[in-house]
Structure formats: structure tokens, C-alpha cells
Design a protein that fits this description.
The chain is α+β, with helices and mostly antiparallel strands and about 130 residues long. Helix content is about 20%, strand content about 45%. A seven-stranded antiparallel sheet has the order 2-1-5-6-7-4-3, sandwiched between helices. It starts with a helix and ends with a strand.
């Protein structure tokens, strides 16, 4: 469970970073727009993206949000990902509304969207200062 002291990091309209494991074992990290729903971070991505291909092969991932006003504070969610089809853009549209963006405008013809949920195994709420 995310402690109240760090909950605001999930309520802000800002990107998070998601790390996945590449086939060679190295890490791949990218920024994502996200929603926090039912106790878990969720983001939208294309099935053709490296991050979704990595998650389908190996679901371990890390979700990281830094407080840009106080960089001694951050939230890290370690876990595994559940990848679900979002072909009707129901989830992508919700993320787009939060970030004032039309998700379809980023996609090419034939692209397929996935809704990814990070299932928390460990939550680190850090305040170094």
C-alpha cells in the first residue's frame, strides 16, 4: 500500500519511469503517462513497443515516480505486469483525458494498444532528506 506521505506523487499529472528487462538481461527504461487505480499504477502502451514485448516475455518491472520539487523524495513500485488488450481504447482514452492528449494520434494504422497494470510486490516510499 502506498503511504499517505507519498500518495500525492500518484495524483499529479506527471510522467513516471518504467523499467523492464530486455532479452539480453539489460534494463530498458522509458517514461510513461499513468493512472493509479485499485492500488496499482497502470499505463497504456503499444504491443509493438519494446516495453510490452519485454513484459510479455518477462513480467518483472519497476515503476518509479520522482518528486520534481524535492528530488530527495520518490516512490518506487517493484512488481510484475499484467498486460491486457485495450483495442477499443477505453483505458487509453482515460489516460489521454488526464494528460490532455489524444492517444490515437500517437499510433500508426494497425497498431494495437495494451493496458498494463503493475502488480505491486514491494513499495518503497523514500524521503532521503
Amino acid at each position: 500500500m502506498v503511504p499517505d506521505s507519498h500518495r500525492y506523487l500518484l495524483d499529479r499529472v506527471a510522467p513516471a519511469m518504467v523499467s523492464t528487462v530486455n532479452p539480453d538481461g539489460s534494463l530498458q527504461t522509458t517514461p510513461v503517462w499513468f493512472l493509479f487505480e485499485d492500488g496499482a499504477p497502470r499505463f497504456s502502451s503499444l504491443y509493438s513497443s519494446r516495453r510490452v514485448r519485454n513484459l510479455l516475455a518477462r513480467p518483472q518491472c519497476n515503476f518509479f515516480v520522482l518528486d520534481l520539487e524535492d528530488t530527495d523524495r520518490y516512490l518506487e513500485v517493484r512488481g510484475s505486469a499484467r498486460v491486457e488488450d485495450d483495442g477499443d481504447y477505453a483505458f487509453a482514452d482515460r489516460i489521454g483525458a488526464r494528460y490532455s492528449a489524444e492517444m490515437r494520434s500517437y499510433d500508426s494504422p494497425g497498431d494495437r494498444r495494451a493496458a498494463v497494470t503493475v502488480l505491486p510486490a514491494k513499495i518503497n516510499a523514500v524521503d532521503v532528506g
